[in-house]
Specification:
The structure holds 2 protein chains of 2 kinds. Chain A is of the alpha/beta class. In chain A, strands 1-2-3-4-5-6-7-8 form an 8-stranded parallel beta sheet. The longest helix of chain A has 20 residues. Chain A is built from 9 helices and 8 strands. Chain A is globular. Chain B is built from 3 helices and no strands. In chain B, helix 2 packs antiparallel against helix 3. Classes of the chains: A alpha/beta, B mainly alpha. Chains A and B meet through helix 4, helix 5 and helix 7 of A and helix 3 of B.
Chain lengths: ~270, ~90
């Protein structure tokens, strides 16, 4: 069985049974970015509790199944429309940055590409640069994706402190992957049943752009999503006859190479039987 | 990409054999969806609707021989990007 890492999944909204099934399919590590809870939270204290959940509760739940849990902290793009709340949340993030398993700031980004979202994105960048954090970026959905991805890359390039190799531009698709890779950034493809990438389209993209600085994830959450989407991609790559070394690079070596740049990184002993 | 891509695309003939039924199924699904719109009895009412226009343009892309059809469809269903948008300034 190929051991794999899911570098983007929201386990707070998944059951313990999902951890069990992921472990049975070879999952050895995950990273969980802070995201929208399905409703707008009323105060920064709500986020403080959420961050405690990410850095204290989920790592214990994952460990029961031999899965290493990492996390990213931020206020997501959807709630970033409220600039005042966002500033309060950004102010409490440093309390948690040195907790075990925190990889950096994320998933920050844009949702509807509004001026307020851009302001809060830049203020997250300011925090990440001051604290030497890696960055995980959410790019918008559907018709907003191309415009939003380009705006995000504009802001990253506009900030000379940003080191592209320490940034992952996530949820790329056919029309945005080149902007991320050509800018020197890492990128992630999200495998969803109906939106973003299907496993087949993700493998098409790998065949077109290669295996450098690219990862795949399930972004499993409370919506229609599949926490076993990464194993589906593994099956699709095998079906096409791609070598096991290439599969391992995409689903294991690449996320590990990206994570290792975190300033708090401590090498775990991961179970990889391939 | 500077490095050689180790992933070789599956040969066209093999793909056709493997995916014929899947492609047939997707064409059939699309045909049935278009029939459904027509059976709604008011196709004229959506003439000029940007959604319907993009669907028609998307179908047209599929029938060309151009490469990167998926990328073209994605671009068709994307909002316009203005490179001169007002960016916030970094605070050093």
């Amino acid at each position: 069985m190929t051991g794999y890492i899911d570098p983007h999944i929201h386990m707070i909204s998944r059951t313990t049974d999902d951890y069990h099934r992921m472990a049975r399919c070879g999952c050895v590590a995950i990273s969980e970015p802070a995201f929208w809870a399905g409703f707008d939270r009323g105060s920064a204290d709500g986020f403080r509790d959420y961050f405690r959940h990410l850095v204290e509760v989920e790592p214990k739940r994952a460990a029961q199944f031999g899965i290493q849990h990492y996390s990213w902290l931020c206020i997501n793009a959807k709630e970033a429309e409220n600039v005042s709340l966002s500033r309060d949340v950004i102010a409490i993030i440093p309390e948690f940055l040195d907790k075990p398993g925190v990889l950096g700031i994320g998933e920050i980004g844009l949702n509807k590409n509004t001026p307020n979202e851009a302001i809060v994105f830049q203020e997250h960048l300011d925090l990440a640069m001051k604290t030497d954090e890696m960055i995980l970026i959410h790019t918008p959905h559907l018709e907003d994706k191309l415009k939003g991805t380009r705006m995000i890359i504009d802001m990253l390039k506009n900030d000379p402190r940003v080191k592209p190799h320490r940034v992952c531009v996530d949820h790329v698709e056919e029309h945005t992957v080149h902007f991320a890779l050509d800018g020197g950034f890492w990128c992630g493809m999200t495998l969803y049943p109906t939106s973003k990438c299907t496993p087949s389209r993700a493998v098409d993209i790998l065949e077109m752009v290669g295996l450098e600085r690219i990862m795949v994830n399930s972004a499993g959450d409370w919506g229609k999503s599949d926490p076993l989407a990464v194993p589906e991609l593994i099956l699709e790559m095998r079906r096409r006859g791609h070598p096991e070394s290439a599969i391992k690079k995409v689903v294991y070596d690449n996320p590990l190479e990206f994570f290792r740049q975190s300033r708090r990184w401590s090498e775990p002993s991961l179970r990889n039987e391939s | 990409m500077s490095q050689v891509n180790p992933l070789k695309p599956t040969p066209t003939r093999t793909l056709l054999e493997q995916q014929f039924l899947e492609i047939r199924c997707k064409i059939l699904d699309l045909a049935a969806q278009l029939d459904r719109l027509q059976r709604g009895g008011d196709l004229e009412a959506i003439e000029g609707d940007p959604k319907w226009t993009r669907i028609q343009k998307g179908i047209a892309i599929l029938t060309t021989t151009q490469p990167a059809k998926a990328q073209s469809v994605q671009e068709l269903f994307s909002l316009h990007y203005d490179p001169e948008w007002k960016k916030p300034s970094p605070r050093f």
